[in-house]
Amino acid sequence: MQSHCLALVALLLAPFVTADVEFTKPAAGATINGGGAIEVAWKDSGSSPSLSDLTGYVIELCAGSNQEFSVLAPVVENGIFTTGNAAQGVTMATVGASIKNAYFLKITSTGKAGTVINYSSRFSLSNMKGSFPTAIDAAAKSVGSSTDGPPTSNQAGAPVVEPGAEQFDVPFGQQTGNVRFAPMMKVPPTKITKKDKSPLYPTSSYSVAKTFLPIPSIATTITQSQTFSVASRENTAAPAAMPTDDMAKYLARWKD
């Protein structure tokens, strides 16, 4: 059973290509103080595509073995590659136990051709105050001294499309595949004309989870970019002169 791993960094790459993100921090076998900051860094692995071809990413904290693991919590949400090859997040001391080499990071990156998931080397979190489900606890303990994380998972997905493409017109609940599309945010009108309100799209059905959920099939959601633009210019009108009548006396009261 692989539980929900919140997100590490989602890479949208060409289908079935090797991932291009190689973690350099945390170091393999490192011990990090649980419940505090965790520093993450990576480099271009040299495989196509290059980091410059990627856009956003999500990083998640995972625990367990390479075959059976659980996503515990997000470390970085809505990351952008253009800000550099490093990020920082926070680990909660209650998300798991202190088991040697039980933890690793998962990164899912977004680009223009698909989705690829990379994993970091294993590391330990000390002073943890939580616990794992029985299956994950046993899986984490079975790792022993190994520091190798799970292998790269390439998931060929629907290509990222330009704003206005038909994918954005399909209601979210009716979409399929591991990449979903959300329409652009509405721009507030300059005048209110509607007398009543109605939803833009039909509601989605849901059920309350009573057991551990399966691994999510949706890797990322792409929101359509805004297409409007705003222009401004300097006001060249001369400022009005200060009043000289009773208003001047009134304003003068507040100078002290």
UniProtKB/TrEMBL annotation:
Keywords: Signal. Residues 166-251 form the Yeast cell wall synthesis Kre9/Knh1 C-terminal domain. One of its GO terms (biological process) is (1->6)-beta-D-glucan biosynthetic process. Pfam families: Kre9_KNH, Kre9_KNH1_C. Coiled coil: none annotated. Residues 1-19 form the signal peptide. One of its GO terms (cellular component) is extracellular region. The keyword Hydrolase does not apply. Residues 25-125 form the Yeast cell wall synthesis Kre9/Knh1-like N-terminal domain. The keyword Signal applies. PANTHER family: CELL WALL SYNTHESIS PROTEIN KNH1-RELATED. This is Uncharacterized protein. It comes from Pseudovirgaria hyperparasitica.
